[in-house]
Design a protein that fits this description.
Blueprint: H1 26-33, E1 40-42, E2 48-52, E3 58-62, E4 65-66, E5 76-77, H2 80-92, E6 96-98, H3 103-113, H4 120-128, H5 144-165, H6 182-193, H7 197-210, H8 213-220, H9 226-233, H10 235-244, H11 250-272, H12 276-284
Helix pairs in contact: 3-7, 4-6, 4-7, 7-11, 8-9, 9-11
């Protein structure tokens, strides 16, 4: 899959930045603060460590200070593996803290503070909306070369997920996308409901990055690698780059950023899953 695209590069995306918002746009401001904030700060600590707190959760210590969330809560991770991963992000920072590179920390903050005050059902509904406009379901009608490319690269993944979950999804060239059967939505709703709140936070994050439920489940189920899923999500852009060229230096940056965010989200899902089988599988891999 994607043999002709593994070496392709992509243009730079615009970077979200923090800004003041009116009460009407408060939720947008919160989302920006917990996602791709560009703020930097001078490193104020020497050592990073973890310790186990009450209830079996794990805390992150910067020197002798306990890490807090943006909402002022004590920063805790549900298990040691995730705590170590977060501590590694903080330890990897140099003279300047680049918060926009600390994706696992951001996801933990989001799960702990729940800034948009949503429950599991609301998160699941938000994720399922991407089915109606899923990246691999919307097809162009021209040019013929791109039509063929989408068919060759996206159809196998679409067939896989339909067989894997015994659902019908389909594809469409209509701007409205395919008509997703209610039975399909119910199947995915039940499946997503099997994840805990933390894992759903990671799932929704990956779905949003790729704009695709199909590609996200492909990663989580280990049918696709992160690299494959990212390239599939950018298939049309890669086609245009291959045909018309790209901006020197910019394409790699965008690709690596999307890979980093997607990989962090997928790792977050696995590390926060309640399934001990998944955890053992990760350790074996």
């Amino acid at each position: 899959m994607l043999k002709g695209f593994l070496r392709l590069q992509s243009p730079l995306r615009s970077t979200l930045s923090l800004r003041k918002v009116s009460p009407r746009n408060q939720h947008l401001g919160i989302a920006l603060r917990y996602s791709t904030a560009t703020a930097e700060r001078k490193r104020f600590y020497q050592d990073v460590s973890i310790s186990q707190g009450e209830g079996g959760v794990f805390e992150i210590n910067l020197d002798r200070r306990k890490l807090k969330t943006p909402g002022g809560k004590l920063f805790t991770a549900p298990n040691e593996a995730l705590a170590i991963a977060v501590a590694t992000e903080w330890d990897a920072q140099r003279d300047t803290l680049k918060f926009y590179t600390m994706h696992l920390t951001t996801l933990c903050n989001t799960a702990l503070d729940n800034p948009t005050e949503r429950n599991k059902d609301q998160m699941i509904n938000a994720s399922l909306k991407f089915l109606e406009t899923d990246t691999v379901c919307y097809r162009v009608e021209e040019p013929p070369a791109l039509v063929e490319l989408q068919k060759n690269e996206w159809d196998p993944v679409l067939h896989w997920i339909e067989n894997r979950y015994n659902v019908n999804i389909g594809s469409s060239s209509s701007i409205l996308g395919p008509d997703i059967p209610e039975a399909t939505k119910d199947t995915f709703r039940q499946h997503l409901n099997s994840y805990n709140f933390w894992s759903l936070t990671g799932l929704e994050y990956v779905i949003t990055q790729l704009k695709s439920v199909v590609l996200t489940m492909g990663i989580i189920d280990r049918h696709l690698s992160v690299e494959q899923a990212v390239l599939l999500s950018r298939l049309e852009e890669e086609y245009q780059i291959r045909r018309w060229g790209n901006v020197e230096w910019a394409h790699d940056y965008d690709m690596y950023e999307l890979r980093a965010r997607t990989a962090a989200g997928a790792l977050f899902v696995h590390l926060t899953s309640e399934s001990s089988t998944v955890k053992r599988k990760l350790l074996q891999d």
